Prior knowledge:
One of its GO terms (biological process) is proton motive force-driven plasma membrane ATP synthesis. The protein has helices at residues 8-15, 30-52, 62-80, 88-104, 112-118, 133-155, 157-165, 173-210, 214-250; strands at 20-21, 28-29. With 258 residues, the protein is mainly α. The protein has one domain (8-250).
Amino acid sequence: MLIAGASPVEYITHHLANLRVGEGWRAIHLDSLLVGWLLAGTLIVVSYVVGRRLSFDRPRGMQNVLETVLEFVDHQVRSIFPGRSRLIGPLALTVLLWVFVMNAVDMLPVDLLPWLLGLFGVEHFKPVPTADPNTTLGLALTVFVLVQFYNVKVKGLEYLLDFLRYPFGIWLAPVNLMMTLIEEISKPLSLGLRLFGNIFAGELVFLLIALLPWWIQWLPGGAWAVFHILVISLQAFIFMMLTIMYLAMAHESHNTDV
C-alpha cells in the first residue's frame, strides 16, 4: 500500500529506514533492538512455561514442538561436534530458535507495524531484525569471539603460533599472519552477511509486491510467502550449522568435557 503522495522509490526508502538515535557508525537502531529483545523474551517465557508444565506421560502442544526441535538440534550437534560440551547444545538451540523467529517477522504484512506505530508518531520502523546488518553481524561477532576463545583454550599457544607458521612457514611470518587474519575475519563476515542478504532480499520482494494494485497482490504475495517460509527456515538452520561447525573446528583436538 503506497503512502499517500509517495512515489515507489520513496515508499521503499521509507520502509527500509530504521528507527534510530545517533548518526553514522554511532547510530543505534532501536527497532532492531526492540524487536530482537522482545522475541528473545518471548522465547524465554514460552520455554519457562513449557518447562514448568512438562508431562512425560502425555506430552502435547508446544511441548511436542519443542521436543522435536530439541531432538533435531541434538542430532546435528552429535553428528558434527567432537566430545561433549555443556555449551554447544543450548547455544545451537538458542541460535536456531532466535534467528528463526526474527526472520519470521518478515512474514507480517509490510505496512502493518509501521502503520500501527505511525499512529503514535513513529516515523520510521523497520521490524525485521535480521534485515539489519548490525543484528546479523552482531550475532556473527559473538560466534567469532566464542570460536577464538575455545581455540586458545583448547590449543593454547600453538593456535597463536599457527598465525605465524602457516601456510608458508615461519620465514614468511608477516605474509602468514596477514593471510590467516583474512581467513579468520572472513568467517564472521560471511556468516552475518549471508543471513542479512537473504532476509533483506526477501523483505525487498515483499515491498515490491506491495506496490502492485491491491486486487492482484494476493497472487504473487502468496506464492512468495510460501517460498519465503523455506528461506527463513533454511537461513536459521544454516546459521546454526555454521556456528556448530566453527566451534567444532575449535575443539577438533579436544575430547573431554568443556
